[in-house]
Specification:
The protein is an alpha+beta fold. Helix content is 17%, strand content 38%.
């Protein structure tokens, strides 16, 4: 009984710092399965309100500097559009982290997939869509 009490007390004390984030292996799997693995330079970022008041639509224009993998024949020198939703989570929210906000002039890697209907790209590795481990 004493062990159970100690375990419950430890959970209560540590609960503010615990996050239900996905493990590194899950993100590495998403990166490995990404159809597009590119090195990009962000040229422009537009932030627009989304339908949900806690969300914003991010529209970024990027120059492809290097292609590590491409299922859609992206080439260095191509200009691509990256579109995704950024959702503000309430304090204490437990779950996967948000995809980072891209910034103008940022040079980064990108794990993406292409939406054939719109021609836009979207991040496919969650919080790790624009960085490696």
């Amino acid at each position: 009984m004493k062990r159970l009490t100690l375990a419950v007390a430890a959970l209560i004390i540590l609960s503010p710092v615990l996050q239900a984030e996905l493990g590194p292996a899950a993100y590495e799997a998403m990166q490995t399965k990404a159809p597009e693995f590119l090195e990009i330079e962000v040229l422009r970022v537009d932030v627009e309100p989304a339908q949900d008041p806690a969300s914003q639509t991010i529209k970024a224009m990027a120059l492809v500097n290097k292609v590590d993998r491409s299922a859609t024949s992206v080439n260095p020198g191509d200009i691509i559009n990256i579109v995704y939703t950024l959702t503000e989570r309430p304090k204490g929210w437990v779950g996967p982290g948000a995809i980072p906000l891209l910034t103008e002039k940022e040079k980064t890697i990108a794990y993406l997939k292409k939406d054939e209907a719109s021609g836009d790209f979207s991040p496919v590795a969650g919080i790790m869509s624009f960085q490696n481990f």
